[in-house]
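TA notes. Do not distribute before section.
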Amino acid sequence: MISVVDERKALLAEWLNAQNLLNEEKLSVASADASFRRYFRLQNKETSYIAMDAPPDLEDSLPFVEIGKWMKNSGINVPEIIAKDLDLGFLVLSDFGDFHFQDAICDNEKDMLYSLASKQIIHMQTRLLGSQNRLPLFDKSWQMKELDIFRKWCLPGISVDEYQKILEPLISEVDAIPKAFMHRDFHCRNLLVYDESKIGIIDFQGAMYGPITYDLVSLLRDCYVDNDPEWIDQMLKDFLSQSCSLNSEYIDMEENEFIRWFDLAGLQRHLKCVGIFHRLKIRDNKPEYLKDVPRVLGYIDQVLERNSELKKIQELINEAEILN
């Protein structure tokens, strides 16, 4: 009996043949992620492509197409869309290779690569103007929707009203952070290093208009990478210095204020991530993400240690049902 997944792959191969892209070549698995999307690599003559399978009843690919075109036209290094059929949920993209940032930073070029990635954030914020008119707003209600994932999967005993009351001060402060284009998942698994250390950006379809520190915390306090707190603070200061020279909105920004914005945006993100990792284990039978939970909790502890007024959130963490 052919599985639904195999039926999707067979349908994708049929569609690629009709586009004269597959011919006699076979599809090889390139990657999968925490969503329902899958990626395959195919070779057509001398050129390699990535085929995306995004079941249309589970994944809406239109934001990927529209945001990707906007980013590409603005000089941001994202894949080119070679072919698409949104009704079927298939796309063919240019291929950045399979050398992920997560693997690249294991050598002596770590600081250089992080500097390149940080500049990509600055480029997105300065080139993708008008984001407030083109993207969903990362507002209080969206924050709470994300944070409720942590409540649902790690704090089943607390009431919604009590939980929201505790988190309202954090949500309000994050909402007050200046906003710009926000990739929303700017981490090591969504960055590819190719062609003499160029950085390619993928998985941008969830972009929003949100806090200017959000993508930076996704990069430096990455859920999948151990980074030293002192190194993170230095990279944060370097980013602010670079931003001041390229973006006038940063010129009068106080360092301590920027660090606090970094901390608070990160706290919101990391609470959500702990909830998502538990959901992946409990609901989706993907236990491999649990190994990253201690790292994320460590980032949360760093923020709570230097922001003592958030002690009630620390109490939530202490009460949470954290899986091993």
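Switch to the second chain here.
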Amino acid sequence: MITYVLRCQARFFLAIPRLSNKLATLSKMSDIESGRLLERLGERVRRLRTHRGMTRKALAQESDVSERYLAQLEQGQGNMSVVLLARVAMALRTEPSDLLRSRERQTAEEILIADLLRELSPDNHKAFLQMLTDHFSIPVESRQRIALVGLRGAGKTSQGQKLAEHLEFPFVQLGSEIEKLAGMSTSEIFALSGATGYRRLEERALMQTLKHYDQCVLETPGSIVMDPRLLNTLLTTCFVVWLHARPEEYMRRLIALGDVRPMEHQADAMADLRRILAERNERYSQAHASLDTNDKCVADCVAELIRIIPRGMKHTMNDAQEA
């Protein structure tokens, strides 16, 4: 036993130099990254100050930060506190996060656009977004992604799968992508992180999906339309179709899918369903097209979807079939 302990001690002491070298390397890497961050911060402060037409003295007076400290900062040598950084950002009419962005450069046009946005009212933000969408988003008729929106029970899965097969497009369930990203089920995500955590994962999953798939049929969670950013993202990158039905039809389908919760308190469940529909209908109605799925089989619904999708997708489908 004593021999074993002595061997362990010997191994430990022999490992100390290697461990010290690793720690020194990590510390050196950390110093390099910190240096790069300070250089980027200094460059952005200097470029913004120049763009504003401010002398360093004027910036010092407006931010209540010494001119000497600002000189060190602009040279990449100033390790600022959060409070001082906030003062400098306010004096430069920007946000602290803008000074710390990972991108190396920011064009003069980007600075002007950011300035303009800060001065606009929320209503004008919507108009500005619509203008950008009209001028720079992919034309609806040229889009190669179809996003299906609607409540659970609307038929997004069954119709989406059949439509994807017909178009020879990948079928992507955003809910599954969110669970893969989180490494847990949707119910566990809500239990651990709540709605806010789920929304963050939903946004990441959507962006990754759009980046990965130029062509796809995308099934989305029913509540995605309640986040204006995600709804606008879908509307500017996909051909969005709202699948809808009567509340009674939703309920019948949910029960048929094995969801017994509506059966336990049917009156309350119907009231909740009508309330959710009332809250979301205005958002759903922003879709490029809608399909009433009441009293229709999957095949009939898919046939209607094929008729309403952009002509460009049909050309792509025909080209693939001819090839």
